[in-house]
Design brief:
The complex is a heterodimer of chains A (326) and B (324). By secondary structure, chain A is α/β, with parallel strands linked by helices. In chain A, 45% of the residues lie in helices and 17% in strands. Chain A folds into 2 domains: 30-134 and 270-307, Rossmann fold (3-Layer(aba) Sandwich); 136-267, Rossmann fold. In chain B, the strands form 2 sheets. Chain B has a two-stranded antiparallel sheet with strand order 1-4. A two-stranded antiparallel ribbon of chain B has the order 2-3. In chain B, helix 13 runs antiparallel to helix 14 (298-323). Classes of the chains: A alpha/beta (326), B mainly alpha (324).
Chain lengths: 326, 324
């Protein structure tokens, strides 16, 4: 009797185990690589966290890896892509440190039938399949609109940015449009060049505030000027008189928002960028029986995906206080 | 040659030989272990990508070997590389055919090396300071002339030089590198003038007393180092079809590490092109292994730094033994 029961339970166990075994057989391991141009930055860690969570949602057979240089050199990023192609990964998600430099490497991946999705910073001249990121004009527009609502027609704004990158130009254009719409009569008094550096931002903004006493708002068009602007305002004793709108939510920015030195920041959604990119790469890797618009790849949008922004303040920025680490 | 100098040279050669064998073994072990676990590791494409991933550094390491043998150092190469890429790009974007454009870029690059040598000779300041100052100045210059923008849209025939293959097999940049390496190795091994670098690095005062024109030699080695950084810049511009001031970040550290890991003493007086190439191969293989295994590349910097430290310790040990 005992023997029979043991046999029966073994049969039941085998019945349950069989589909699992078939499942594992049907879904061989897949590896997807994310390539970033400043490995270790909080922003890209959020994106990678999104990628990991999306991979988990797809299934345990999907593994992810994070690659890319810790210094800003687009050629090193291109090399990382080529190495992943040689490794025959199943998909690559990349943010282009410099759009043109990555074109040959991305095209090589596509020729090897490895889907490439760009996120955050696009390489439009390449054959990448889709871009997931922030519409920079819209992000600037939202910032301009919010500052217009804060300060009204009396708004006298100084912008801190640096020349060159296309996305910064778009943010500035969007900002001007948003400000003009929310507060007709508001003016942009000065635009300073911080060369992308937080210390330079402080020096430039200190000089700007001294030369233009009427300025009552500062917009930092990228991640660095926010803390620089707060330091400049503090050193001139202008707290409470100048409202600062920063960009992104690095640790220092959130701390300064909590202290009340920065009023708000344009929060992009890097987590969602990584999350959506992973799903798109997976979908592209798995064509269905219906032919897609991309030869050799599955169904994904032919148009870029805007992950949107939100103006974060004291209450809404707290969730981003503890960035993921890898 | 006096007998003492001969035995000194022999002992130095012994020390280099030991490191040489060690490095060949280290490379072989990593390659075999990786190949046993990852079938893609020895695929022709992965071999090509692994070697190509360190090609600009490999080109620059040829010149750096000579500089380090003289007891000097050249930190400016990481800024000369983008300078050369930008120069060739700017010329082509202004309608200059790519041949003359390359000539202009290489002339610019060489000029930087000659200025480095002139400053070291005149100011009698350590090459570290002079070339670091040059690196910072050039980085600013590269940013200023491009405004941070990328130059692109180069002719296909130019890009072919960076992306094409010889006989559908050997990437053209690799063939260029092989040619340069062979020439440098032959001259360093057999040419009396070039071999004077060993005497300068071994004992500059003695070299001077024996009639070697140390200052003139500096123009040669720093000029060559810069010229080769210029070649690396042109190759990178052709490889990626673009030029940007960000190219070559920290390349000088990888190049110095390759030369030191290869067994050249940072005190000068020893080193060969073959051992430097083994050093470059080692860094490339380590880098390729990290990507293949998916281990965080942060650890790679720790390995590279550790290797540099180990190479310096071994080099010092050999140097002290030679001094005894």
């Amino acid at each position: 009797m005992l023997k029979r029961m043991a046999l029966l339970s073994a049969a039941i166990a085998a019945l349950f185990a069989a589909p699992a075994a078939v499942n594992a057989e049907e879904r061989p391991a897949e590896t997807y690589g994310m390539v970033v141009f400043l490995k270790g930055s909080e922003f890209f860690n959020w994106a990678y966290a999104g990628m990991i969570d999306a991979a988990k949602a797809i299934g345990p057979h999907v593994k992810t890896e994070l690659h890319g240089p810790a210094e800003w050199d687009a050629t090193l990023e291109a090399r990382a892509i080529e190495q992943l192609v040689a490794k025959k990964v199943d998909g690559i998600i990349v943010t282009a440190g410099e759009a043109n430099t990555l074109v040959p490497a991305i095209n090589r991946a596509i020729r090897a039938r490895i889907p490439v999705i760009t996120f955050d910073s696009d390489a439009p001249a390449s054959n990448r399949l889709c871009f997931v990121g922030t519409n920079n004009y819209q992000a600037g527009y939202e910032a301009g609109k919010a500052m217009g609502e804060w300060l009204g027609a009396d708004a006298r704004i100084g912008i801190c940015t640096f020349p060159g990158p296309d996305h910064l130009k778009k943010r500035q254009d969007g900002f001007e449009a948003g400000l003009a719409e929310a507060a007709p009569g508001a003016k942009i008094v000065a635009v300073v060049n911080d060369e992308g550096d937080v210390a330079k931002a402080e020096t430039q903004l200190t000089a700007m505030l001294q030369a233009n006493k009427e300025i009552n708002g500062i917009f930092g068009a990228h991640g660095n000027p926010g803390p620089g602007a707060a330091a400049a305002v503090r050193s001139l004793g202008l707290q409470g008189q100048v409202d600062i709108m920063a960009f992104d939510f690095g640790g220092p920015v959130i701390e300064l928002i909590e202290k009340g030195e920065i009023r708000g920041t344009v929060g992009q959604n890097p987590y969602l960028m990584g999350y959506m990119s992973m799903f798109l790469a997976y979908a592209a890797r798995h064509p269905t029986e219906v032919p897609s618009m991309f030869k050799d790849f599955g169904h994904i949008p032919t148009a870029g995906i805007d992950t949107g922004v939100r103006i974060l303040d004291k209450e809404t920025s707290a969730i981003y206080k503890n960035p993921p680490r890898f | 040659m006096p007998p003492t100098e001969k035995s000194l040279l022999r002992r130095a050669a012994d020390a280099v030989g030991l490191q040489y064998i060690g490095l060949i073994l280290a490379n072989l072990i990593i390659i075999l272990v990786m190949a046993a676990h990852y079938e893609e590791f020895l695929s022709p494409f992965n071999i090509e990508v692994t070697l190509m991933s360190f090609l600009p550094e490999a080109v620059m390491s040829l010149g750096m070997t000579l500089v380090i043998i003289t007891g000097g150092i050249d930190l400016s190469i990481s800024a000369v590389l983008p300078l050369s890429a930008i120069a060739v790009g700017m010329c082509m974007n202004r309608g200059v055919p790519w041949g003359p454009a390359i000539a202009v870029a290489l002339a610019f690059a060489t000029l930087i090396g000659l200025i480095n040598a002139k400053l070291i000779n005149v100011l009698r300041v350590h090459p570290f300071i002079v070339t670091m100052a040059m690196m910072l100045t050039l980085k600013g210059f590269n940013l200023a002339v491009t405004d941070g923008r990328t130059l692109a849209g180069f002719p296909d025939s130019f890009q072919e030089m960076g992306q094409g293959y010889l006989w559908d097999l050997v990437p053209i940049p690799m063939a260029i590198f092989a040619g340069l390496a062979a020439i440098t190795a032959v001259f360093l091994g057999h040419n009396r003038f070039v071999r004077q670098v060993y005497s300068i690095g071994g004992n500059e005062r003695a070299a001077r007393l024996s009639g070697i024109r140390v200052e003139r030699m500096r123009y040669f080695v720093y000029g060559l180092s810069s010229f080769l950084a210029g070649v690396a810049g042109v190759i990178v511009a052709a490889q990626y079809g673009s030029a940007n001031n960000s190219y070559g970040q920290n390349a000088e550290m990888k190049v110095i590490t390759s030369v030191a890991v290869g067994g050249a003493s940072l005190n000068g007086g020893s080193g060969t092109i073959a051992s430097t190439l083994l050093g470059v191969l080692f860094l490339a293989v380590v880098n390729g292994s990290f990507v293949m295994t998916g281990i965080s590349t942060y650890w790679q910097d720790i390995v590279n730094g550790g290797m540099l430290l180990a190479a310096v310790v071994v080099g010092e040990f050999a140097f002290n033994r030679r001094q005894r």
